[in-house]
C-alpha cells in the first residue's frame, strides 16, 4: 500500500484556547491536545487521579457498563454542569491481566461521555484544570491516506505460474523478489534495477526455521481473510472461546473472540468483504504467515509448512470499508494483543511525519518524542504496556516487539509512533536496495525492508497491463479484492510486515533453540544483523510519478545521496538475525509455578528442554500436601492443594533435571498475578 494508513491530526496548540470558549470554562493546561476536527464528539478519554479512580470503582463501575457518578464532588459538579455524563473503563476488566493493568496505570483511564451543552474542546479545556484529572485525550479518528485497492494477479498469470512450476512447493515464489531475489527479474540489457540478494534473505533462514506456532503476531489493520487457502492454517484460535459464540466464555471482556476481535464494529466476526476494503490486512498477513510448501500460491517468511505449523496471526481489526477506528479502539486492540499471547504487534499505520511537506499532506505530525507523548498519551501508555507485558519471562521473549511503518511522505524523518525508541520503524526499499521513492527516512528510522516501488519500475508491464506492478509486493488478498486470491501492493506498510515476519521467525528459532531474550535485546540483534545498504544510495534515481494511474508519463529524479545513513541500520536480514539468536540469550528454564488452591496450572514441559517434543517427563514434589501434578499427553497439570510453598524437580527421559518451586496462594490467577 503506497500511502501508509495514518492518524489524521494537526499540530497541537500549547497555549490559551480562542476567546470563543464559553465564559465559565477556564483556560486549559498547556498539555491539552488540540487535534483537527477528526475526533469523536461528545466523549473524551480521561485519566483520573488514583483517588478518584478508587471512588469510581467503589461506586460499582462494571466490566463495560456505564456509571453516572464519579464519587468526587468537584468532578461531578463540573461534569453535571457540562450536561450529564457517563463513565466507562477504557479497558474492560480482565481478571487474568488486571494486576499488570493496574501496575501500568491503565485502570485510571475512562471514557467520559457527555451531552451537547458544550463542545468537546470546551469540555477538554475545563477538565484539564481539575486536580482530579491527570490527562485528557481526544478520541481521534484513524484515517487512511490510501483508498485504492491492490493490483490483482490475473487468472492467466496465476495459471501460467502453476503450469510452469508444476510439482513445486509454492508456484508464485519466483514473483516474490522480496523473499528470494536472484537479480534477474528487473534486468533488461544495460538497465539493471535488481540486485541479487536484495531481499530479506529467507532462503538461508528457512534452513534454520520455518516458524513456530507458539509465536503469535497481532495484525492491527483491516480484517484478514481467515478462510484463504494460504492463510487458514495460520490463523490464531482462542481455545478458551467458542467460534460463533456471543458469550464471553473466557472472561476477557470480548465475547466470542475466537480469531481475534473486530474492534471497529465491537464484535467477534472478522470482515473483509466491504466494497471499500482494500485487502490490506490479508496482504500483510500473507507476507508474515502464508503456509509454505503447500503447492498453493505464495511463500511467507514464518508461515511453517504442511508438516510443521508456523507462527499464528491474531486478527485485530481496526478498519472496515469506509469505517475507520478511533484511539479507543486502537488502544483496546493493543492491550488485547498483549493479554492474549501476542509477542509481535504489526502496525502498518502511523501519524504523518513531523517534517512532511504540508502542501502535499495538509499538516505535519509530531516532530519530537515530547510532542508525540503530549498528543497521544493513552496510545503511548497502551503500547508501552505491550512492550512491558507481552511475551513471558519463561518463554523466548520477555516483553513485546512493536513494528511500525516509517511513513510514505518521502520525508526526512520517520513518522510516530514508529520513531519512538521503544518501537521499530521500517523504511521501504526497491529490488536493488535503493530507497523507495515514497519512503520516509532519517531520524527515527530503525531498519529497512522491501516495500516495492511501482513508480521506479515504470518500464515493466505487469498484470492487467499495469506498469510497474511486479515491482510491488506480491501476497494474499481476499477474493472480493482479487478473484485469484493474490495481488500486489507497495509502501512502508508492506515493508513493515517483512520486519514483523523476520522478528517472528527469530522468536520461533529462539523457542526451538530454548533461548530466552528481553524485548530490547531482540530489537538490538535485529539492528546488529542488518545489511549495510549505504553503498546503493548513490547517484540519481529516475522514476515516473503516479505510474499506476498515468503510466510512464512524468519522469522525475531523486538524489539517493540524501538517503545515505538515513535507512536505519540497513536492510533486514533473516538469516543473520537467526544466527545471532542462536549465539546469545540465556537458556530457557522450567518456570516456578504459582497457583491458587483448588485450581490448576497447565504447562508444556517440552518448551524447556532441547528436543523436548521427543522426550517424556516425570515430576517429583517435595511436599505433596501443598501441590500435586498429573500428566495428560504433552501437558503437565499442577494442582494447588493448600496455601504454602514446596520444592520440585522435573526430569526428562534424556536424564536432564531442573529444579523449580511451586507456590500456592490465594487471590491469584493462572498467570500468577495477584
Please specify the SSE layout and strand pairing:
Layout: E1 5-7, E2 43-48, H1 50-58, H2 73-82, E3 85-89, H3 98-103, E4 109-114, H4 120-127, E5 133-137, E6 142-144, E7 151-152, H5 155-164, E8 187-188, E9 191-192, H6 202-205, E10 216-222, E11 260-262, H7 280-289, E12 312-320, E13 323-324, H8 327-339, E14 344-347, E15 349-351, H9 358-361, H10 369-375, H11 377-389, E16 397-398, E17 401-405, E18 424-429, E19 447-450, E20 473-476, E21 486-489, H12 492-513, E22 515-518, H13 519-528, E23 540-544, H14 547-550, E24 555-559, H15 574-583, E25 586-587, E26 593-595, E27 600-603, E28 617-621, E29 627-632, E30 635-640, E31 644-652, E32 657-664
Molecular structure report:
- The protein is globular and about 75 Å long.
- The strands form 9 sheets. Strands 10, 11, 12, 13, 14, 17, 18 and 19 form an 8-stranded mixed sheet that branches. A 4-stranded antiparallel sheet has the order 3-4-2-5. A 4-stranded mixed sheet has the order 26-32-31-28, with no helix packed on it.
- It folds into 3 domains: 5-140, no CATH class; 151-583, 3-Layer(aba) Sandwich (Rossmann fold), CATH 3.40.50.200; 589-664, Immunoglobulin-like, CATH 2.60.40.
- By secondary structure, it is α/β, with parallel strands linked by helices.
- Helix content is 21%, strand content 21%.
- Residues 7-37 and 668-674 have low confidence and may be disordered.
| Overall outline | globular
Structural class: alpha/beta
| Beta-strand content estimate | 15-25%
- What is the terminal separation in angstroms? 44 Å
CATH architecture of the largest domain: 3-Layer(aba) Sandwich
CATH homologous superfamily assignment of the largest domain: Peptidase S8/S53 domain
Per DSSP, the total helix count is 15
Class of the largest domain, according to the CATH hierarchy? Alpha Beta
Q: What is the rounded Rg? A: 26 Å
User: What value does the average pLDDT take?
Assistant: 89
Using DSSP, what is the number of strands? 32
The percent of residues in helical segments reads 10-25%
Low-confidence stretches: 7-37, 668-674
CATH topology of the largest domain, what is it called?
Answer: Rossmann fold
Amino acid at each position: 500500500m503506497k500511502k501508509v494508513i495514518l492518524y489524521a491530526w494537526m499540530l497541537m496548540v500549547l497555549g490559551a484556547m480562542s476567546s470563543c470558549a464559553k465564559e465559565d470554562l477556564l483556560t486549559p493546561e498547556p498539555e491539552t491536545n488540540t487535534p483537527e476536527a477528526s475526533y469523536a464528539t461528545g466523549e473524551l478519554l480521561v485519566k483520573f487521579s488514583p483517588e478518584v479512580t478508587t471512588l469510581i470503582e467503589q461506586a460499582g463501575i462494571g466490566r463495560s457498563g456505564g456509571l453516572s457518578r464519579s464519587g468526587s464532588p468537584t468532578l461531578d459538579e463540573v461534569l453535571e454542569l457540562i450536561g450529564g455524563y457517563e463513565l466507562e473503563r477504557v479497558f474492560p476488566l480482565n481478571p487474568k491481566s488486571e494486576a499488570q493493568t493496574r501496575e501500568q496505570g491503565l485502570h485510571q483511564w475512562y471514557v467520559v461521555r457527555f451531552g451537547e451543552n458544550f463542545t468537546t474542546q470546551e469540555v477538554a479545556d475545563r477538565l484539564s484544570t481539575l486536580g482530579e484529572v491527570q490527562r485528557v485525550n481526544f478520541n481521534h479518528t484513524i484515517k487512511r491516506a490510501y483508498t485504492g485497492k491492490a493490483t490483482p494477479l490475473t487468472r492467466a498469470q496465476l495459471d501460467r505460474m502453476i503450469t510452469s512450476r508444476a510439482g513445486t512447493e509454492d508456484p508464485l515464489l519466483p514473483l516474490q523478489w522480496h523473499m528470494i531475489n536472484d537479480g534477474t527479474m528487473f534486468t533488461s540489457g544495460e538497465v539493471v534495477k535488481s540486485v541479487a540478494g536484495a531481499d530479506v534473505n529467507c532462503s538461508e533462514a528457512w534452513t534454520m526455521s520455518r516458524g513456530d506456532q507458539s509465536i503469535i503476531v497481532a495484525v492491527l489493520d483491516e480484517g484478514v481473510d481467515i478462510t484463504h487457502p494460504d492463510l487458514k492454517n495460520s490463523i490464531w484460535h482462542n481455545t478458551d472461546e467458542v467460534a460463533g459464540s456471543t458469550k464471553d466464555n473466557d472472561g476477557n471482556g470480548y465475547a466470542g473472540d475466537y480469531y481475534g476481535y473486530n474492534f471497529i464494529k465491537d464484535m467477534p466476526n472478522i470482515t473483509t468483504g466491504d466494497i471499500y476494503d482494500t485487502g490490506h490486512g490479508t496482504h500483510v498477513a500473507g507476507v508474515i504467515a502464508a503456509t509454505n510448501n503447500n503447492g498453493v500460491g505464495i511463500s511467507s517468511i514464518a508461515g511453517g509448512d504442511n508438516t510443521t505449523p508456523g507462527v499464528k496471526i491474531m486478527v485485530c481489526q481496526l478498519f472496515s470499508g469506509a469505517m475507520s477506528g478511533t484511539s479507543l479502539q486502537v488502544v483496546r486492540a493493543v492491550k488485547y494483543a498483549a493479554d492474549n499471547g501476542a509477542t509481535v504487534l504489526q502496525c502498518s499505520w502511523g501519524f504523518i511525519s513531523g517534517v512532511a511537506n504540508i502542501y502535499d499532506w495538509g499538516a505535519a505530525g509530531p516532530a519530537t518524542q515530547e510532542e508525540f507523548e503530549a498528543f497521544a498519551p493513552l496510545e503511548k501508555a497502551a503500547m508501552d504496556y505491550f512492550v512491558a507485558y507481552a511475551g513471558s519471562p519463561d518463554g523466548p521473549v520477555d516483553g513485546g516487539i512493536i513494528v511500525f511503518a516509517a511513513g510514505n511522505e518521502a520525508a526526512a524523518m520517520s513518522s510516530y509512533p514508529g520513531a519512538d525508541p521503544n518501537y521499530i520503524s521500517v523504511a521501504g526499499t526497491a529490488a536493488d536496495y535503493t530507497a523507495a521513492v515514497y519512503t520516509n527516512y532519517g531520524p527515527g528510522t530503525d531498519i529497512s525492508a522491501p516495500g516495492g516501488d511501482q513508480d521506479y519500475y515504470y518500464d515493466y508491464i505487469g498484470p492487467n497491463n499495469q506498469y510497474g506492478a511486479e515491482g510491488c509486493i506480491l501476497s494474499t488478498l481476499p477474493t472480493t479484492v482479487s478473484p485469484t486470491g493474490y495481488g500486489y501492493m507497495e509502501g512502508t506498510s508492506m515493508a513493515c510486515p517483512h520486519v514483523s515476519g523476520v522478528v517472528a521467525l527469530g522468536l520461533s528459532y529462539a523457542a526451538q533453540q530454548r533461548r530466552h531474550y528481553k524485548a530490547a535485546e531482540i530489537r538490538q540483534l535485529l539492528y546488529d544483523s542488518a545489511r549495510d545498504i549505504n553503498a546503493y544510495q548513490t547517484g540519481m534515481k529516475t522514476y515516473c510519478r503516479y505510474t499506476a494511474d498515468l503510466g510512464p508519463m512524468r519522469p522525475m529524479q531523486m538524489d539517493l545521496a540524501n538517503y545515505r545513513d538515513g535507512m536505519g541500520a540497513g536492510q533486514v536480514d533473516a538469516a543473520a538475525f537467526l544466527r545471532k539468536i542462536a549465539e546469545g540469550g540465556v537458556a530457557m528454564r522450567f518456570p516456578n509455578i504459582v497457583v491458587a488452591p483448588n485450581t490448576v496450572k497447565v504447562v508444556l514441559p517440552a518448551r524447556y528442554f532441547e528436543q523436548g517434543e521427543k522426550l517424556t517427563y516425570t515430576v517429583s514434589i517435595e511436599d505433596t500436601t501443598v501441590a500435586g501434578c498429573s500428566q495428560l499427553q504433552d501437558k503437565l497439570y499442577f494442582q494447588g492443594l493448600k496455601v504454602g510453598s514446596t520444592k520440585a524437580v522435573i526430569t526428562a527421559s534424556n536424564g536432564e533435571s531442573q529444579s523449580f518451586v511451586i507456590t500456592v496462594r490465594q487471590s491469584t490467577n493462572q498467570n500468577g498475578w495477584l
